[in-house]
Amino acid sequence: MRTALAQHVLDVFNESGVRIVTPACEGHPEAPKVVKRADGHLPPATPVPGTRAPPSARPRRRVRYHRAAGPPAMHDTPPVTPESIRASIAATIACDALEVRGDGHHFEALVVSSRFEGLARVRRHQLVYAALGDRMRQEIHALSMRTLTPGEWRAQGQQ
Q: Does residue 37 lie within any of the structural domains?
């Protein structure tokens, strides 16, 4: 039994002169095999009713810049530093310990806060991401973090 979508695909190919034959190979006897038209070309794709075209088939938006201005310069924004990340986190989350290291592109953070009590690791990371706000999408390329409660931190022999 064929689905409506499979039947539509078969109908479209048959209308444009492409013959679909099964079985295609030994491994998948049910898979259809596309046979090209006599002129050697496949017909142009026809959208299936009720579906969207794939992103590759959609027209791309072109970004245009004013000739005098040019594209936005990367050096207009100050570089991201471990200190600026530390300040953003500390402004939102009360931390018992906060360490941030990095090279300007990739950063590592250790955040110890009693606010993480009872929260899963994903929720803890979400709190740190929220503290950084749009900086995570625009300025910070990569941030690896350890989020611990004070008890977890003491148990690891830190402090």
A: yes
Task: Find out whether 94 and 113 touch, Cβ atoms under 8 Å.
Answer: yes
β-pairing, 106-112 with 142-148?
Answer: parallel
Give the helix ranges, DSSP H, for the chain.
4-15, 82-92, 121-132, 135-138, 150-155
DSSP states of 67-100:
TTT-SPPGGGSPPP-HHHHHHHHHHHS--SEEEE
Establish if 20 belongs to a structural domain.
yes
In this prediction, residue 93 carries a pLDDT of 94
Residues in the chain: 159
Residues 86, 150: one domain? yes
Q: What is the pLDDT of residue 128?
A: 94
The CATH number given to whatever domain includes residue 90 is: 3.30.300.90
> Are 123 and 64 a contacting pair, CB within 8 Å?
no
Query: Which pTM does this prediction carry?
Result: 0.51
Burial class (CB in 10 A: 0-12, 13-18, 19+), 128: buried
Q: pLDDT at position 105, please?
A: 81
First and final C-alpha spacing in the chain? 67
Range of the domain at 27: 4-51
Judged by DSSP in three states, 61 sits in coil
